[in-house]
Structure formats: C-alpha cells, structure tokens
Specification:
The protein is mostly helical. It has eight helices and no strands. Helix 6 crosses helix 7 and helix 7 crosses helix 8 (124-144).
C-alpha cells in the first residue's frame, strides 16, 4: 500500500500553519489544539502560540478574563458539537479500514471509504478525512518508537 505523499507531514508544519490561520481568523480553540498537538508529539510551541498563551496568562493574572473560555473558546460553539462527535469516531473508522485491509486485502480507495461510510452513517469524504488524520498520527507514533509499517 503506497503512502499518500500529500498526507506525509511528520513535522506537522501544515497542521500548525492551519491552526495559526484559524486562530488569526478568530478560532480561539485553535490555540488549544496547537497546545495539544505540540504536547502529544513533543514539538516546540510555535512563537505565535507562545505569545498568545503569554498574553492570556497576563490577562488572567490582571483579572481581565472571566474564564478560560475567553482564551480557548467554549468547548461546544456553533456547530462544533456535531463536528466533535464526528471526529470522535475517527479511531473506529481508522480501525475498520485497517481491519478490512488486513482481513480482505481491500485496497484503500474511495470504494472502501464508501463502504465504511455506510457502516458508520458517514460520507466518503468524511471517512477519508478521519482515516488519513488518524493514519498520519499513527505513522508518527510508530516512527517515534522506531517501528515501521
């Protein structure tokens, strides 16, 4: 099974750039996602995120914020709850795709994503996004431990 070169970003620079762009457009949760990404993969915190955290801490110490929701956004803003519920199925989707590849020798194609999507009540594009999102992290996780495949 060949790797998708468009999905190979072991340093997560594309993810961090996307989070920065989201943050600059007003998505406060992008800062929290950036903190998690850096912590989970032992990455240095980008300057923009460090600056934002620094400003937030000073604002908190000065009593200028009422809650951390002011800094990171509410956990379930408009439309976010549904997105999070879908995202929470990503491990199950990835596991099912890998199961079908292993048991049936299925190729990772749009047809497979359609099939898994029907099982989970999701569209092919969402299944693909969820699968490749988990797969990217899985590959990095295995590389960090000196494992392959």
């Amino acid at each position: 099974m060949p790797d998708d070169p468009d999905r190979d970003d072991p340093d997560f620079s594309e993810d961090l750039a996307a989070e920065r762009k989201s943050f600059e457009k007003g998505d406060k949760a992008a800062l929290l996602r950036t903190l998690w990404l850096c912590a989970a993969h032992r990455l240095p915190l980008p300057d923009w995120a460090g600056d934002a955290i620094g400003f937030a801490c000073f604002a908190a110490w000065d009593g200028e914020i009422e809650s951390w929701d002011d800094v990171f956004g509410k956990p379930w803003g408009d439309g976010q709850r549904r997105r999070v519920q879908t995202q929470s199925r990503s491990i199950d989707v990835w596991t099912r795709v890998r199961q079908l590849v292993g048991e049936e020798g299925a190729a990772i194609t749009n047809d497979l994503f359609d099939r898994v999507g029907k099982e989970f009540g999701l569209s092919r594009s969402i299944v693909s996004r969820l699968y490749y999102g988990v797969d990217k992290h899985w590959k990095v996780f295995r590389q960090m431990r000196g494992q392959t495949s």
